[in-house]
Please model this.
Amino acid sequence: MALLLLLLAPAVRCTSSPKRGLVYVPSTKHPADDKIWLTPPSDLTWYYNYQSTPSPVFVDTQLQFVPQLWGVPSGISDTFFLDSVKSQINAGANITYVLGFNEPDASTGGGSGISTDLAAQTWNREIAPLRGLGVKLGAPAVTGAPSGLTWLRDFFTACNCTADFIPVHWYGNFEGLASHIGEVRAAYPNQTIWVTEYALAHENLQDTQKFYNQSSEYFDRIDYITHYSYFGSFRSDVSNVGGNAAMLTQDGKLTDIGSWYLGRDATGNVPKGGAGKKDGFGGWGAVVVAVVAGIGALGMV
Model:
């Protein structure tokens, strides 16, 4: 029986990559979990938090912050995001990349739900000017649904603009992920790709670990994929993409996936639990809703 279990287990991978970043998901109940991502050894080199300003816990650390304009300002002439990023750069922050809108093609599950025309106007006012400061611009991060690439195509037509890289979100199996990235590459052959949210949602542990190993090897091998960030920096009992996808157990210990992602050996810690089910195309709705609440207080919708 022991031999059978060994043969059925997914390959244990301990790989290292400078491409890896953190989708930062704060926990008000367990703030000490933040220290896990800063404890060496760690492959993490960058992070984002769906907001324009850095998270205090990561200020003056080895992680480079990438600001994101999650939605659109409430005022048609608002330059909140542009002003925030310029202020950080003027203060000496190393900001070389920004991310566009979060899942603008979706209005639920954490999507910002923006029309292409409004997104185009906001991009040209809030994001495009940053290129003059040497900042590379990430396109709006659409969902992995078929409508996502349609939205992105219509957006570029409306704004008559270009992006330096294309963010990708995916929550299905590896075959679908590779196919989707192939579609993105075919549509935008001159841009690099960042995979800024991905996981295999709500599957058994063996398949989830297999997906992680396949996808990380794929991302590390493909030169036009320059950055990637696994969606799972939370405890398994609150994970809305399934407990097995989380990088932390319900007790706040690194799972095998969490440890592999940091470039370490497997821990053998098995995740348990999981929050309500999320559809396969979006991100973690409860987390993004909390972030959006904070953004709303700053005058954004």
